[in-house]
Amino acid sequence: MIELRNLSKSFVTSDGPLDALKHVSLTVQDGDIYGIIGMSGAGKSTLVRCINMLERPTEGSVIWDGVDLGTLSEKQIRQARRQITMIFQSFNLLMQRTCLENVMFPLKLNHMPKAEAKERAMALLETVGLPQKANAYPAQLSGGQQQRVAIARALATDPQVLLCDEATSALDPKTTHSILELLRQINRELGITIIVITHQMSVVQEICNRVAILDSGTVVEEGEVSEIFSNPKAEATKALVYPDMTEGIDSFGAEHQQMVRLVFQGAAAATKPLIASMAIDCGVAANILSATTRTLGGKVYGNMLLNIPGGPDELAAAVKYLSATPSVTVQVDVEYASRGDGESRENAAKEADEL
Fold first, then answer.
1. Could you give the CA distance from residue 20 to residue 33 in angstroms, rounded to a whole number?
2. Distance between CA atoms of 352 and 329, rounded to whole angstroms?
3. Is 137 helix (H, G, I), strand (E, B) or coil?
4. Considering all CA atoms of the chain, what is the largest pairwise distance in Å, rounded to the nearest integer?
5. Cβ count within 10 A of residue 283
6. pLDDT tens-digit readout, 68-102
7. Burial of 287 (0-12, 13-18, 19+ CB in 10 A)
8. pTM
9. Is 199 exposed, middle or buried (0-12, 13-18, 19+ CB in 10 A)?
10. Strand, helix or coil for residue 316
11. Given 34, 50, 188, 278, which is the most exposed site by the fewest CB atoms within 10 A?
12. d(CA 162, CA 186)
């Protein structure tokens, strides 16, 4: 288990002090595939470098299996890094060495006999699906193949934790999927805890079981991936999970907007023609401003933004109808609600909360 306790990191720049991390506290359980996501400059890479002490925190602690890494000597830190290994966006392979030699490199540093190191390196290349590339050089490989070799090298010391710092950012979607499948296989078969640093919510969606959202060096939301996807609360989380959900708002006059956000939390709810049914059953024909759905763990999750035409009575009727649908959460966005009957509008919002 890895615990980050009140972790902060500051740098001195030409413009003055920069607080890259501010009192970050997280717990990663053994066997997790844990995502840490944020936009550029959020502090993600600084955080992952603090986890393995490539950067010493200014304040706070990194506790790994009950040991405060900040109290260890440099020699002890190097030994710990054999159990907390890392892969990078740029692969960081030794270009003048073959794939086999790249995987053997950390084993040689650990003074493993050459024959034994070669045997283990070949087994690891088999694990990542590249035994036929043992004698090839990195420049002869595709980006995805280079990352597979980097993963094999990271596994050479039989680690307990694998840190992935934007490991798929340089890859196309198909290759990204294959690398994520490989990481999932490694987690499942070897029991290795994986921490994924990324700016892509699709990566978190595909592979992680828990996620923390980092914004300006602070954790603004954390929890199960399904929970975060189905009901993001922080503005930074909403921007990452559903970046297109505010598109279309300006196409309607602000004085006529009664905004309702639907959160779908299961395949049955997401596949029902809900909006069309509402128009037929209660005469409220909503305008769909934007919609996003995703499949996660065999279930469909999604988010839809509606403009409800008419006045407060139509808004209340729509909220009541939509809220009666299983596995659908209804949120009235009062910021955009029309300037009609405030009491009716307030009742609609209250009814949505109660349901």
1. 24
2. 8
3. coil
4. 81
5. 10
6. 999 999 999 999 999 999 999 899 999 999 999 99
7. middle
8. 0.76
9. middle
10. helix
11. 188
12. 10
DSSP code at position 267? H
> CA-to-CA distance for 131 and 129, rounded, in angstroms?
6
Cα distances from 253 to residues 79, 250, 293, 309, in angstroms, run 62, 7, 27, 11
Amino acid at 174: K
Strand partners, 194: 33, 162
Beta bridge partners of 296: 299
Q: Does the pLDDT at position 53 exceed 60?
A: yes
Which residue matches tokens 């919002």? 349
pLDDT tens for residues 273-308? 788 888 998 899 888 887 776 666 566 667 788 889
Determine contact, residues 94/101, Cβ cutoff 8 Å.
Answer: yes
Integer-rounded Cα radius of gyration of the chain? 25
Q: Residue 316 and residue 318: Cα distance in Å, rounded?
A: 5
SS3 at position 163: strand
- Cα dihedral value 152, 156, 161, 162, nearest 10: -20
Of 57, 52, 73, whose CA–CA distance to 2 is shortest?
Answer: 52
The DSSP element (H or E) to which 349 belongs, if any, is helix 342-354
Q: How far apart are CA 195 and CA 34, in angstroms?
A: 5
List residues bridging with 95 in a β-sheet.
none
Q: Give me the half-sphere count of Cα atoms (radius 13 Å) on the Cβ side of residue 126.
A: 6
